[in-house]
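Researcher: Sequence of Holliday junction branch migration complex subunit RuvA follows. Predict its structure.
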Amino acid sequence: MIASVRGTVIALAPDAAVVDVGGVGYSVRATPGTLAGLATGRETTLHTTLVVREDSMTLYGFATADERDLFELLQTASGVGPRLAQAALAVHPPNAVRRAIAVGDQRVLTQIPGVGKKGAERLILELKDRIGPVTCDDDGAPVSPVARPMWREQVQQGLIALGWTQKDAATAITALADTVDTERPNVPELLKQAIRLLGKTR
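Model: Prediction complete. Tokens:
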């Protein structure tokens, strides 16, 4: 893995930079915010991660290690690839994304291009336990968690106890969310519906 590159910026494009490292030019894809801090002819250090696909190898660069770590974490969620993870960092600073996931703020997440209501729910469900503690906002003020319906956790725990994965549970809960219009739904009935939904995929 290429964890970082340090060298002279020899070219800039709207979505990438070329950094000369010991005579080798590395093409590094980056967000507009990262690119804005670079200048042709100047030395820079970028924190990087290499994304390998069957037909390509793409190096992504970030101004901070925190941005890179969040970029990698976001891609562990269902349906999130490098493009969407990079879009998240182009729209929000890392702490804002982490905070939105931690407290269940769908409004912030749906501001990311390509993330709708269901996508935001999936990010929260799959990553909230791995996003790390977020206790303050960007100004240092305490964060007050946004209440999330308890039925989600109850159905998730029920499905996992029955042998389904967290990813399976997230898929079923996202599908059920549009049908729930009360604060205290019938959890056993929702669990049965989730089992029926997942049973069709087995």
